[in-house]
Amino acid sequence: MDQADALEKRKHCLFVIGEVHETIAGNDLEIKPFYFIRIYQPRPRFEYLATVYAKSPEGFGSQDAQHWLQSAFCDGKMHRHQGSITRRYRGVVEDSREITGEPGDLSVVDAPSRLEPLKDLLGLPHTLLDHTKTPDPIEKCFFGYAKLSKTRQLVLGHIESTWTGRHPDAAFEIEVTHDAANRYFPKRLKCYQMDQEQSTSRSLIDWTKHGDLLLPRRGEMEGPIWRMRKQVDQRFYMKFHWLIGDQVPKQWTECGHPNYGHFVLDHFGRTYDRPNPNARPNFAGGVFWADPWTTPEDLFIEPDATTKTNR
Q1: With contact defined as beta carbons under 8 Å apart, do 35 and 16 qualify?
Q2: Alpha-carbon torsion 3, 295, 126, 100, what sign?
Q3: How far apart are CA 190 and CA 309, in angstroms?
């Protein structure tokens, strides 16, 4: 996609406020809030990635603390850092570890997610918050496994295209609604596995203009995954904030900062856990906790779809 290529040639920052809604048969809805941050500069090469969970996932320390997965590539070196602010017997510490080395020598286990909205919103939900670079679904699916089978005109000038194919051994069909108001970029995708009566994944995309770039403003993705032999219905709701070119402060791409994500959260008015430097050891006020999570009012493209599938 030419927009993705054009974006990679420019200094930019992406800040995502998101929620994952999960439902397992017989259980209540569980909401998992998260942030995703990317700061990128092509020359000299700099890239910062962070996935921030508003509450630590199970097995990662205090459930009340934010959990950070971060990486920063600067001056030819990769720095990775993960952890949370925790309270221990002798005071408040940052329960974390840092790994430094050549990019190819570091395991993806400790890496933050790599979210690329211009590509990932056309993929499958279960790969959205992946540690590795997602293969381009446009080239791999639409120009690889699938073929255009038909098109039809919709109201307001929108166009619907239907693609059919087989991968790896299951036949599938993809319906794409192209937005006439936004250069016919995809605004809705539905993927069907031919041996099932219902769709296997759905996506909604809301676009916005940044100069000559057309970028996602909000995105919704829905699809099932399997966990412990049980089907989990996942729905991702995301709001994308973009800073392009000179909108990104110079300080954000300079080497040596312990947490570039704090710059971004401060800029967009979101709080984060941090130690109180004036607290006494083992003192209850030893942590400035982040404010309770609040869902942005305009997070949902279709507000009534938060309790049902996107149709």
Answers
A1: yes
A2: positive
A3: 11
Cα–Cα distance, 174 to 149 (Å, whole number): 10
Whole-Å CA distances, 213 to 62, 177, 305:
41, 20, 28
Instruction: Give every CB contact of residue 125 below 8 A, 6+ residues apart in sequence.
Output: 201, 203, 221, 222, 223, 225, 234, 235, 236
Q: What confidence tier does 47 reach under pLDDT thresholds 50, 70, 90?
A: very high
Q: Is the pTM of this model over 0.90?
A: no
Q: What is the mean pLDDT of residues 108-137?
A: 71
**Of 45-54, 69-78, 297-306, which gets the smallest average pLDDT?**
297-306
Give the pLDDT mean for 226-233.
Answer: 82
Sign (positive or negative) of CA dihedral 295, 299, 302, 306? negative
Contact 100, 75 (CB under 8 A): no
How far is residue 205's CA from residue 122's CA, in Å, rounded to a whole number?
9
CA distances from 136 to 116, 127, 139, 205, 237 (A): 10, 12, 6, 17, 21
